[in-house]
């Protein structure tokens, strides 16, 4: 171990990191990295978790001593008992402590939204090298890892929650119009071909969508987003069934793109759009749609939890900007996905909200601190 | 940006380092400030077979014990990587950085009591030229 050469003094820039025993095997298997941009605080990532790195100083003198079994020949006095010399290579000013944190993934949506995959792109057969270089907002897996502070597993889950798809090595999200078009084509074909919504044959569906002009990988992606696997056919084609909730929510969002509307009008439009054999109910839309009482009428509008920030402070700030006071049953769908290691949901509420209860039997109300 | 953290020692082979911790600061006498390399700090002794230790620095004697760390400490070293030059490209950023785990610390010898001033100077363990008395602040 060259660095412990006492001749060279405090060399090699050894740092001390305080870690739990459980990290050792991960590190030994090369599964730990520090991630972040130069202007960010570094995080340490294992395969599945993210940790903030905090420097904890000490006023004590901490001498770092590497192992040695050398009896130093500094003691050149013959009368000397052969003393073992332990070399101090550094006085450590402190330690780096690791604290588990939620991954920072808001940036992922931002990055992938720079260049969503759209119709114009899918129909463009000519992708010359030159054009590829001038396109901004294209990110490969390694580019995302380079820019985001999250573990591999958390990044994959983030991509999945955005329904992102890897096309030509780049991770893309499909733009709304495109997603809508392909789903409508799928639903249209269900009726046209008299397919069972609970038993869709993958090969058949993908084949039809391809002839309708959608690339094969995107057709398959559509199945993955809007359907659930029923059967992993061994050697045969996989069977899928339409995911009722996902499709109903998508259709509701499409309708509300026009803006706020009276609930009766919304429900009527929605019921008409929902495929036969599916049942839509308003409580499917928790975390997606909000109700507002204006005079005698109730109006509804789109307000999706997926469009909100994922960090608690910012999430609550946006929620209280939208509405000053929330009842728990309305608030819960908009905060239940918040995960802060070490903090329970009660703890989160305590930290970021003010809870009032007008009377004993009244519902508690949450407002900004 | 990614910095890999690895351990080249192999499983179970990570060498165990030691920590000697004391309150306060150890300072070299002014005349020796520029020649810290190989300067003897003091003498560490374990007088009996128990986990009691004495640390003698200059004319101060500290007593302490060996303590197990609740969480082991890893010692990391920064390694600058050199990327291979690519043909025809101006490689401005030559490589990245890696962190190598070079040791594990599971115990420390902690001295947290006031030092005792020894009435007479201890016999220097080595010849004059190799040592200089150090003062504990």
Automatic annotation (TrEMBL), chain A:
Organism: Sesamum indicum
Organism superkingdom: Eukaryota
Pfam families membership: Dcc1
GO biological process per UniProt: DNA replication; maintenance of mitotic sister chromatid cohesion
Entry GO terms, CC: chromatin; chromosome, centromeric region; Ctf18 RFC-like complex
Protein known as: Sister chromatid cohesion protein DCC1 isoform X2
Family, per entry: Belongs to the DCC1 family.
Keywords, ordered alphabetically: DNA replication
Lineage start: Eukaryota, Viridiplantae, Streptophyta, Embryophyta, Tracheophyta
InterPro entries named in the record: Dcc1
UniProtKB/TrEMBL annotation, chain B:
A single cellular component GO annotation: Ctf18 RFC-like complex
Biological process per Gene Ontology, one example term: mitotic sister chromatid cohesion
InterPro entries, A to Z: Ctf8 (IPR018607)
UniProt cross-references to Pfam families, sorted A to Z: Ctf8
Coiled coil: none
Protein name from the UniProt record: Chromosome transmission fidelity protein 8 homolog
